DNA sequence: AAACAAACCTGTGCGC
DNA sequence: TGCGCACAGGTTTGTT
């Protein structure tokens, strides 16, 4: 579910509400959520620690602690972080609860129906050994200065654009919604081979990826009909009202008005595009 | 090297 | 109303 804009929105919520707070105690329900290490490792790593920052790399949330270690949270498909008043009834599938010290008396919940998400306390000095995929992420279009020259270099490969944009080792943070929206804005077909783009087309795609992500962050991300994604206060985003192709198969293209959006499967993922606008 | 399928889980929406 | 199937914002692994 959550892509860069949604994770960034969660990060901002953590920065506003959780930074500086000490974790008094920790409850772990489902051990699967902490499968990279163990229930006890998360409890030991977090109990008594204070969260000193809230960072993000692609779709990975990284919260440094005053112990020198850091908490990594990945929401995957259905994970949510929620701040709630202490003692509030927890939703179904609440797998981890952090009891925050101080006032107001609050808890930070990790809720995740599909259990693909995870939480782990790791040593930032040993990130390459402990969370190898985090160490190998490509540049983050929002957190890093992803210049056009660097971007052009990433496209010098004989690969279809859609799977290339989804590859977190190439660019970190773009997921299925924003890949489709970026390609539409750039007027490029998802199956175009990256190494066939003209300089002008590379420029369009660069601007589109950065623009779509920035605007989506401004809008607090996309909350679809199932309202799965919400920020840490339980509020949805509104970028979904700006979607031009995602989940619009069979509907009129909002850009040209003269063709219907089609859905194909590329790289095992639903892909939506306008066969007339995008070449 | 790159494309594809399957796997990890639970929930929801749709056609019959 | 109930049942079965398709599909879902992510990522990894194994196979062509």
Mean pLDDT: 97
Number of helices: 8
Uncertain residue ranges:
none
- Structural Rg: 20 Å
- Which structural class do you get from the secondary structure elements? alpha+beta
What is the C-level CATH assignment of the largest domain? Alpha Beta
Distance between the termini: 28 Å
**Biggest β-sheet, characterized?**
4 strands, antiparallel
Tell how many strands the DSSP assignment holds: 10
CATH fold-level name of the largest domain: N-terminal domain of MutM-like DNA repair proteins
Classified in CATH, the superfamily of the largest domain is MutM-like, N-terminal
How many distinct domains?
A: 2
Element order: H for helix, E for strand? HEHEEEEEEEHHHHHHEE
Specify the overall morphology. globular
Q: Report the helical percentage.
A: 25-40%
CATH architecture of the largest domain: Alpha-Beta Barrel
Describe, in plain words, how this protein is organized in 3D.
The protein is globular and about 55 Å long. The protein is built from eight helices and ten strands. The two termini are 28 Å apart. The strands form three sheets. A four-stranded antiparallel beta sheet has the order 1-6-7-5, covered by helices on one side. The model has no long low-confidence stretch (mean pLDDT 97). The chain folds into two domains: 4-135, MutM-like, N-terminal (N-terminal domain of MutM-like DNA repair proteins), CATH 3.20.190; 148-273, Helicase, Ruva Protein, domain 3, CATH 1.10.8. With 279 residues, it is α+β, with helices and mostly antiparallel strands. 26% of the residues lie in helices and 19% in strands. The protein binds a DNA duplex (16 and 16 nucleotides) through helix 7.
